[in-house]
Design goal:
The protein has about 675 residues and is mainly α. It has 39 helices and three strands. It has a three-stranded antiparallel β-sheet with strand order 1-2-3. It is flat and about 90 Å long.
C-alpha cells in the first residue's frame, strides 16, 4: 500500500512520523506559519509524505521560498509494521492520520494529486473500518461532487467497489446516497459509471433493502427536475422491478411510460434504449397493454435518434410475444421503420435486417413482405444504406430460401455490382459467393458468376481484395480452371498495387492459392511473384514473403522446392543490393523449417557459408542470430560439422555485433533456452 499526503506544517510531519513509529534520519529545522505556537521565520513550507511497504518513508520538502529539503526514512525493522498499521488502520491516531491524508489530498489544487487520492478510496475505507467509513467517509463523499469530471468518474467507479468496506450487504445501501447525486451530473460518462456502480451494489442488497432504498431512489431520479437524472433512471428499472411488490411495480411501469413520453429527446432516447430489457422482466399482460403501445409511439417519434433505437426493441419485444400478437402489434412498427424518412433509421434497419426478418415470423406472407422491403433497402438512395444491406445479403438469402433468392435478389445484386459507391461494391464482394449455397447451381453459374467476375476486375483494389479473401467459397463454386483464368490476373494486379497494404493483404492469401491451384499452375503463375515480393521496398512485405516460402514449401514436395525456390533464394544471396541479401537470410531461416536436415545440408548450407562472409555487417550478424534457430532443424552431426565452425569464425569477426550474436548463438546451441518465444525470436 502507498499513502501520500501533503502537510503544510513541519510539526504535523513530525507528529505523523511519531504516530507511525518512524525516526528522522537527517534532522533539519522545520517552521510553519500556521498552527504553530512559535515561529523562528515567517515562511510557508509544504511537506509530502509517502508511506510504502516496498520503499522507505520520505518527506519531500517543497518550500515555496526554495528552502532546502529534508529526508526521512522508516527503520528497516519497522517498514512492514508501518505498512501493516496503515493498511489495517490500527489505533485511533492512524485512523485520524488516514482521514487527514484523504481530506488534504482531495483539497489539493493539483488535479492529478486529487485524482490519485480518489483512486485510493478502497484502501482508505479498509483502513478506517466499516463504522467510520459509514459515519465520516461516505457523508464527505456525498458532498464531493463539484470537481473535475475525471475525478468524478473515478469516484463513481470506486463507490461500486466499497460494499465490503462498509460491512457488506447490511450497509451497502449507504453508498447509494453519493451515487444518486453523481447520476444527475451533466457529464454522461460520470452518470454511466454511477449507474454501473449502482448495479453492482444492487446485486448485494436483499429484497427489503431494494424496496426501502433502491426503489425510492429510482422514483426520485425518474421524476427529477433535470433531464440528466431521468436519463440515468431509465437503466435502473429492470434491476429492481422483479423484487418489488405489485403496487410498486405498477408505479414503476407508469414512471417508465412517462419517460418514453418525456419532453426531452435525450430522456426518450435513453428510455427507448432500455425498453426491450425492461419488457423482458414484465409479465405478458402488461407488456401488451403498456410497453408495446409505448414502443409504437417511439417508432413515430419526431427525433430520428429515438426512432433508430426502436429497431432493436422490435426484435426483443417480438421474441416475447405470441405469433398472433406479434403480427398485429410488431409487424406494422417494423414496416414503418423500414420505410422511415431518415437514412440513419433505414441504415439501422438494414444492419439488423436478418434479426428483424426472424422476428417477423416464418409465415409465408410475412417473409415475402420482408424480402420486398429488403429489396427496397438494396436500392436505397443513400449509399450507406445500400452498403449495410449488401453486407447482409447472404444472411437474408438463407432465411428467404432458394425460390425467393432467385426471384427477388438476383436483379438487385446485378445492380449493386455496378454501384457507384466503392464501399457498396466492396460489401457485396465480401458476401457474394456465400450466396452460392442459397440458389440453384444453374442460377449461380448464369447470374451470380458474371457479377463475381465483374467485381474481380473492379477498378478499386479493396473490392478485388474482398473477392480474393473469400477464395474458399469461390473455388467450391467455379472450379480450379475457371478460378485460375479469372482470379490470377486480379492477383497479379493487386501484387503490383501502389498501396503497400494492398500488396501485403494479397500476399497473405498466397498459401491458400497454392493449395487451390496445385504445383504446376502455381509454378507457372505465382512462383516468380513470390520471389519478387522478397524484393519489395517495404520491409514488412519482405518478411511476410519470406514466411510464405515455408508454407509453400510444406504444401508442395521437397523436389519442387529444390527446383523452384532454392535457386531464386540463391540468386538473392548473391545480389548486389544488401536488402535483397538480407531477404535471402530470412528466406533461408524459414525454408530450413520446411526442408529438414537433408535439405538444409544439401541446398542451404552453401548459401549460409556465402552469407556468413558478406561485406555488410548487418547481414552477417542477422545470419548469426538465425543460425541457432536453423540448427534446431538439423541433426547433431550436421550442426557440429557445419554450423558450429561457421559461428566460430564469425566469433572472430572485426565487427563487435557480429561477434556478440555469433557467441550468443553458439551458446544457445550448446545450452538451448528452456522457454523461447518463437515469435520474438523471429522478429
Amino acid at each position: 500500500m502507498v499513502v501520500t499526503m501533503n502537510l503544510h506544517c513541519g510539526n504535523h510531519v513530525l507528529q505523523a512520523l511519531q504516530v507511525l513509529q518512524v525516526k528522522m534520519c537527517d534532522k533539519g529545522t522545520f517552521e510553519c506559519k500556521r498552527d504553530c505556537k512559535s515561529r523562528e521565520q515567517d515562511r510557508s513550507e509544504e511537506y509530502r509524505v509517502t508511506i510504502s511497504n516496498s520503499v522507505a518513508m520520505e518527506v519531500e520538502n517543497m518550500p515555496k521560498d526554495n528552502a532546502g529539503a529534508s529526508n526521512m526514512e522508516v527503520e528497516n525493522g519497522n517498514q512492514e509494521q508501518v505498512a501493516a498499521a496503515a493498511a489495517t488502520g490500527e489505533g485511533e491516531n492512524n485512523d485520524e492520520l488516514l482521514v487527514a491524508v484523504l481530506i488534504d489530498e482531495l483539497q489539493n489544487d493539483d488535479m492529478q494529486i486529487r485524482l490519485n487520492s480518489m483512486k485510493k478510496l478502497t484502501t482508505i475505507a479498509k483502513a478506517l473500518g466499516p463504522e467510520r467509513t459509514i459515519r465520516e467517509l461516505v457523508p464527505y463523499l456525498s458532498e464531493f461532487v463539484d470537481d473535475e469530471d475525471d475525478i468524478l468518474v473515478v469516484l463513481s467507479e470506486q463507490l461500486g467497489d466499497l460494499p465490503d468496506c462498509v460491512g457488506g450487504s447490511e450497509n451497502a445501501h449507504v453508498l447509494l446516497v453519493p451515487l444518486e447525486t453523481l447520476s444527475g451530473i451533466e457529464e454522461a460518462v460520470v452518470r454511466d459509471r454511477a449507474v454501473e456502480s449502482m448495479k453492482k451494489i444492487v446485486k448485494v442488497l436483499n429484497k427489503s433493502q431494494l424496496e426501502t432504498h433502491m426503489a425510492p431512489l429510482v422514483k426520485r431520479l425518474a421524476t427529477g427536475k433535470w433531464f440528466t437524472s431521468r436519463v440515468s433512471s431509465s437503466s435502473l428499472f429492470e434491476i429492481v422491478y422483479s423484487s418489488l411488490a405489485q403496487k410498486d411495480q405498477d408505479e414503476m411501469r407508469q414512471l417508465f411510460v412517462k419517460l418514453c413520453e418525456d419532453d426531452t429527446p435525450m430522456v426518450r432516447r435513453a428510455a427507448c434504449q432500455q425498453l426491450g430489457k425492461f419488457a423482458s422482466v414484465i409479465d405478458y399482460k402488461h407488456v401488451m397493454s403498456e410497453i408495446v403501445p409505448s414502443m409504437s409511439k417511439l417508432t413515430k417519434d419526431a427525433q430520428d435518434s429515438v426512432r433508430l433505437r426502436t429497431v432493436e426493441n422490435c426484435v426483443m419485444v417480438a421474441n416475447l410475444l405470441k405469433p398472433e400478437d406479434r403480427e398485429a402489434k410488431i409487424l406494422p412498427a417494423i414496416y414503418a421503420l423500414c420505410k422511415d424518412k431518415s437514412w440513419r433509421v433505414r441504415y439501422m434497419v438494414a444492419d439488423k435486417f436478418p434479426s428483424l426478418t426472424e422476428a417477423a415470423g416464418e409465415e409465408k406472407k410475412n417473409r415475402h413482405e420482408m424480402i420486398n422491403i429488403f429489396v427496397q433497402l438494396l436500392q436505397d438512395g443513400e449509399a450507406e444504406v445500400r452498403t449495410a444491406a449488401a453486407q447482409k445479403i447472404a444472411e437474408v438469402a438463407q432465411l428467404a430460401g432458394e425460390k425467393l433468392t432467385t426471384d427477388k435478389l438476383m436483379r438487385p445484386i446485378e445492380a449493386l455490382a455496378k454501384d457507384e459507391s466503392q464501399y457498396t461494391r466492396a460489401a457485396l464482394a465480401s458476401v457474394i459467393m456465400s450466396l452460392a449455397n442459397c440458389a440453384p447451381k444453374q442460377v449461380v453459374l448464369e447470374q451470380l458468376l458474371p457479377q463475381f467476375l465483374q467485381l474481380l476486375k473492379d477498378e478499386d483494389p479493396e473490392v478485388r481484395l474482398k473477392i480474393i479473401s473469400k477464395l474458399e467459397s469461390v473455388n467450391n463454386v467455379i472450379g480450379v480452371e475457371l478460378l485460375a483464368q479469372s482470379l490470377l490476373p486480379a492477383v497479379d494486379d493487386l501484387a503490383r498495387d501502389k498501396k503497400w497494404r494492398i500488396r501485403l493483404a494479397i500476399l497473405k492469401y498466397v498459401p491458400l492459392l497454392g493449395r487451390k491451384l496445385g504445383a504446376s499452375m502455381f509454378e507457372k503463375h505465382l512462383c516468380k511473384q513470390c520471389v519478387d515480393w522478397l524484393k519489395d521496398s517495404v520491409w514488412k512485405i519482405r518478411m511476410v514473403a519470406a514466411e510464405n516460402l515455408k508454407e509453400v514449401a510444406e504444401i508442395f514436395e521437397a523436389k519442387w522446392t529444390y527446383t523452384n525456390l532454392v535457386p531464386e533464394v540463391k540468386a538473392l544471396s548473391e545480389h548486389k543490393k544488401p536488402s535483397y541479401r538480407m531477404s535471402a537470410v530470412y528466406a533461408i531461416n524459414y525454408l530450413a523449417q520446411a526442408m529438414g536436415n537433408d535439405g538444409v545440408v544439401k541446398e542451404l548450407m552453401p548459401l549460409i557459408d556465402t552469407l556468413s562472409k558478406d561485406k555488410v555487417a548487418n547481414i552477417r550478424f542477422t545470419l548469426a542470430k538465425k543460425l541457432s534457430h536453423i540448427a534446431k532443424f538439423m541433426g547433431k552431426s550436421a550442426v557440429d560439422d557445419q554450423i558450429k565452425p561457421i559461428l566460430s569464425k564469425m566469433a572472430e569477426d572485426s565487427d563487435k555485433d557480429v561477434v556478440y550474436f555469433a557467441q550468443e548463438s553458439y551458446a544457445n546451441i550448446l545450452n538451448p533456452p528452456k522457454e523461447v518465444n518463437e515469435e520474438k525470436k523471429q522478429s
